Amino acid sequence: MVRLFSLLAAVTVVAVAPASAFAMRCGTHLIERGDTRLELLARCGEPTDISRSVEEHTIAFRGDNEAVARTVRVVVDSLLYNFGPTRLMRRVDVRDGVISSISTAGTGFEPSAVGNVDQPIRLGDERVRVRSRWGDPADRSVHSETRSAAYSDAESVEVARTTVEVETWTYNFGPTRFMRRVSFENGRVVRVETLRPGF
C-alpha cells in the first residue's frame, strides 16, 4: 500500500511539474504555451510592460551547383505581468500571435512604492522594476541593433539575425547627485552608467 501511494505521488509530481513550468494562472484561468495573445489579454488583462524584438532566420541549402536560401522574420513580443509583492512576475513571449514561452521574472512589487533613488539597479532588472524604484526618467531614447549568428551542418547553413530594440533612460536626480543612464535590451537592464552631476 505504501509503495502504491509513493508511486501515485511520484506520477502526480511528474505530471504537474512540466505544466507549472510552461503555464501561469490569472484568477481562475490557466494560460499555457500555444494559447493566443487574444486569450492571454482576455484572461490576464493588459501587461505591466511590453518589449519587442524581431528574429530573422536565413537557411541556405547546398546543392550540387547551387544554393537555395529562405528567410523568415518573426516578431517576438515579451509581455511582463506584475502580480504584486507576494508573487513572482511572469514574462510571456508571443511569436506570431501565439505564446511560445512563459518564465518567471523575479518578485513583483507594489506599483505605488515609486521614487526611492537609493535603491540599487542591477543588470538583468526588468524595466518595470527600474520605474518602480526610480520613477519615470527625465529623458528616453530608442534605437535598434542587429545581432547575427551562423550555424552549419553538412547540408545547410543557417544565419540567424535578431533586431533588438535598445532603450536608454536618463535620470536627473538634481544638483546634489550624479545623473544616471540605464540601457535596456528586451526589457532588461544591460548597462548602468554614472554621468556628470545633475541640475
Give the helix level as a range of percent.
10-25%
Q: Give the C-alpha Rg.
A: 22 Å
List the domain count as a whole number.
1
Proportion of beta-strand residues: over 45%
How would you characterize the overall build of this protein?
The chain has 199 residues and is an alpha+beta fold. The protein has one domain (21-197). The chain is 18% helix and 52% strand. The chain is built from three helices and ten strands. It has helices spanning 2-21, 37-44, 127-134, and strands at 23-26, 29-32, 49-62, 67-81, 88-95, 98-107, 139-152, 156-171, 178-185, 188-197. The strands form two sheets. Strands 3, 4, 5, 6, 7, 8, 9 and 10 form an eight-stranded antiparallel β-sheet that branches. A two-stranded antiparallel ribbon has the order 1-2. Strand 1 (23-26) and strand 2 (29-32) form a beta hairpin. The chain is flat.
Layout of secondary structure:
Layout: H1 2-21, E1 23-26, E2 29-32, H2 37-44, E3 49-62, E4 67-81, E5 88-95, E6 98-107, H3 127-134, E7 139-152, E8 156-171, E9 178-185, E10 188-197
Antiparallel strand pairs: 1-2, 3-4, 3-8, 4-5, 5-6, 7-8, 8-9, 9-10
Short description:
By secondary structure, the protein is α+β, with helices and mostly antiparallel strands.
Structure keywords:
alpha+beta; two-stranded antiparallel ribbon; 52% strand
